[in-house]
Specification:
Elements: H1 2-20, E1 25-27, E2 36-42, E3 46-50, H2 60-76, E4 85-89, E5 97-100, E6 111-115, H3 126-142, H4 152-155, H5 159-171, H6 175-186, H7 199-210, H8 214-227, E7 230-231, E8 234-235, H9 241-252, H10 257-264, H11 268-280, E9 290-295, E10 299-305, E11 308-310, H12 312-317, E12 327-330, E13 334-341, E14 345-351, E15 369-374, H13 379-390, E16 392-394, E17 401-405, E18 414-418, E19 424-429, E20 434-436, E21 443-451, E22 454-462
Parallel strand pairs: 3-4, 4-6
Antiparallel strand pairs: 1-2, 2-3, 5-6, 7-8, 9-10, 9-12, 11-15, 13-14, 13-15, 16-17, 17-20, 18-19, 18-21, 21-22
């Protein structure tokens, strides 16, 4: 009996290894491709195939594509039962490249990148860019066991890939490639959603730089898999712009409406879609000491609030509509003061505990501004933490132009830059969301914005 069990076990192991061993040759049968491919290299993570025109001296894909795929699986999880990325190379044919995932019959249900426009002899620059770009499509199209890319109609082919490439270069220690790519992307513009849009500079890089790097990229796909509509193991529809901003806000842990407004503009359609998305997918952006809800019994959209004063404009930037709060949760040691009018005017009610429905307080759907306060010693620290998180700056480190955003209007505010000794080296009044810092010497500085009764500060490095 033991011998039979051992034999059966050995057969299973052999069958598994055989199934996972990439074939020595592979006949193409997709699009206009009809080459017989030869396997040049494989390990536990990658299988590299060339057609007859690719020089055998090209060996960098053996290591690089494996490193990329191992990094992808470490960050985003597995992509099907076969652990391999199948990397196909042609020479000076089939312009561009294309991807396929383990969901797709077209490439025999394998995770594939297929590239052809170069000779691949350098193993740097464009050779790396296009191959990494195609891997980005696999990530966006098959993460978390769900097929499809609901954001593809929004970011196209592919603004997401640009930040993915930057992250991969950084994390694989390719510093010079990361710097080259970053500099190249600074001047990259697109005509969607409006002409002159800087997707990398004004949207993806600030999110990446300020809200968690690799982790914020992965959280976007986690939220999609958890919340976005599906039909079986595929997404059932594409997302609209409001949903796009909402899901990235969830990934970042803060409302990205101000950043989106600066990067893309903010239309009435965006506003309607954004508000609807927060109702359809009611997850909070990060954590707070208080949470306000659209409906009684903690229903509808939810907004996390830290200690601070919130005018109507600030609440609206966070996605809270005027006269729209019906219930709230308050952590121990904190209180929320709701005001009838903007700027903390008119009738008010103070709550120090959870309240499932403000109807009983005669304050349902009546709050226009509010304060979140505490009498503990942590109050000043909470306020400082709030202002630090609200001020978003990028790029950091910076060489020429420092850009910044706040979730409120700061028209006419005083803007100062202090050096490490506290000496003021720059002063102006707000006219635009950027400052020319090219004349500053290299070092660490503090950006300080004084707006009404608040001071927002954040450190940055001048290269």
């Amino acid at each position: 009996m033991k011998q039979i069990i051992y034999t059966l076990f050995l057969c299973i192991v052999v069958q598994t290894i055989t199934a996972q061993t990439p074939p020595a040759t592979w006949q193409e049968h997709w699009f206009e491709h009809n080459q017989l491919l030869s396997r040049k290299f494989y390990d536990n993570d990658v299988a590299v195939y060339y057609d007859n025109d690719v020089s055998n001296s090209v060996t960098w894909p053996y290591t690089y594509m494996g490193d990329v795929w191992r990094y992808v699986k470490n960050v985003y999880g597995n992509f099907g039962s076969d652990p391999h990325l199948f990397a196909i190379f042609h020479t000076n044919k089939y312009s561009g490249g294309h991807p396929s995932t383990y969901f797709d019959a077209s490439h025999d249900y394998r995770n594939v990148i297929d590239v052809g426009p170069y000779s691949w002899t350098s193993g740097t620059g464009g050779d790396l860019d296009i191959t990494t770009h195609e891997v980005a499509h696999i990530v966006e199209g098959a993460s978390k066991g769900i097929h499809g890319s609901p954001a593809f109609p929004i970011w196209g082919d592919s603004k997401w890939a640009e930040i993915f490439i930057y992250d991969v270069y950084l994390k694989l220690g390719k510093t010079s490639e990361a710097t080259r790519w970053y500099n190249q992307m600074q001047n990259q513009t697109d005509n969607f959603p409006v002409a002159g849009t800087h997707w990398f500079r004004d949207w993806f890089y600030p999110i990446y730089n300020n809200y968690g790097g690799t982790q914020v990229l992965n959280r976007f796909f986690e939220l999609l898999a958890q919340h976005f509509p599906k039909n079986g193991n595929s997404y059932s529809r594409n997302m609209n712009w409001g949903e796009f901003i909402h899901f990235w806000s969830g990934a970042a842990g803060v409302s990205l409406k101000p950043l989106a407004t600066a990067a893309f503009g903010w239309t009435s359609t965006f506003e309607t879609q954004f508000n609807q998305a927060r109702n359809d997918f009611p997850f909070a952006y990060g954590t707070g000491v208080a949470y306000v809800y659209k409906h009684c019994n903690y229903g509808g959209y939810v907004t996390a609030l830290r200690v601070g004063n919130y005018t109507l404009a600030q609440l609206q930037n966070l996605g809270v509509l005027n006269d729209d709060i019906s219930s709230l949760k308050v952590s121990n040691g904190y209180q929320v003061q709701l005001y009838w009018d903007d700027n903390f005017g008119g009738s008010s009610v103070t709550l120090t505990a959870d309240n499932a429905c403000l109807v009983a307080n005669n304050f349902n759907d009546l709050a226009t501004s509010l304060r979140v306060t505490t009498t503990s010693l942590a109050a000043s620290a909470e306020t400082a933490n709030l202002t630090e998180k609200q001020l978003v700056i990028y790029p950091n480190p910076v060489r020429n132009e420092l850009r910044f955003n706040l979730p409120q209007s700061i028209s006419g505010s005083l803007i100062r830059i202090l050096d490490v000794t506290g000496r003021e080296v720059y002063r102006t009044r707000f006219t635009a969301n950027s400052i020319d810092v090219s004349k500053l010497t290299a070092g660490v500085y503090t950006l300080m914005i004084n707006s009404n009764d608040k001071s927002f500060t954040k450190k940055f490095v001048k290269k």
